[in-house]
Amino acid sequence: MPLNHAPLCELPKWGHWLETPSLIVALVPPGNLEVNITPTFELISTRFEIGRGIAAFNSDKLETYCAEPGGFDVVPSFSSYRSIETAGFFIVLAYKQPLASRILTEYSSDKDVELVPGQVQASAKGLRLAQAVRDFFTDRHVGGALYLESVATLIMEHVIRHRSNVSGQLKRVPDFLALKMLKTAIEYIQDNLQRELSLDGIAGVVGLSPFYFAHSFKATTGVPPYKYVLQCRIERAKALLREPSLSIAEIAYEVGFGNQSHMTTVFRKTLQVTPNVYRQHVK
């Protein structure tokens, strides 16, 4: 994307690219970058190694630029970002509508809350959030789209606190889900384990925004939604492995892992055994 060319509106397919109906996430390897983009979505990036060069956020003037691990670069929709830089591994998140709008409006009391172009200072919390996205890639997509959307919601929350035009009081997140809502959400998850569950879909069943639901669910159950779904899939798989008539591949599909390899990876990580070894032990 040379700076003397017209800016791109869509994110180029950098690195390891993943896309859901609500979100695009890319893990980009180290290299020399020349970026010129005016996105149609809310664009947030974060680094694992220091990036240096020259950059301009919504400006014609390129200035000395340094991005540190645990910090965030923020490029709101229809603003501009131009840079020439040397970068280590970094992650790019593109928030599509209506996900971005829901998070922005539900988080703040301001009706017209917007992100502000620029950088969020590096922090330990920022680094933990970035690592949570990187874990999705290194752990072979454990957690699925629900995991990505949950972490992306928390990243957007962090950015709103530090890089938005919010002038009023930030909304307080509910501490716990009402019992009826919790029961409805759990029943929906249990009834739909075979499908690709999304944070937006589960939250919609109980009439809450993804942001409110993610926080309230964790406060109530002690685990984030994506982790609860993963636990449910593991428990369902363990029960089905007692049925000798079902192949491991069939069980993987039945509980929503998609394929046998994915289920084996999750079993090794969480139970320290493969599904086949587990089946032998419970015969």
From TrEMBL:
A Pfam family this chain is assigned to: HTH_18
Record-linked InterPro entries: AraC_XylS_family_regulators (IPR050204), Homeodomain-like_sf (IPR009057), HTH_AraC (IPR018060)
Cross-referenced Gene3D superfamilies: Homeodomain-like
Entry GO MF terms: DNA-binding transcription factor activity; sequence-specific DNA binding
Domain HTH araC/xylS-type: 183-281
Keywords: DNA-binding, Transcription, Transcription regulation
Record-linked SUPFAM superfamilies: Homeodomain-like
Protein name, entry field: AraC family transcriptional regulator
Protein's organism: Symplocastrum torsivum CPER-KK1
Lineage of origin: Bacteria, Bacillati, Cyanobacteriota, Cyanophyceae, Oscillatoriophycideae
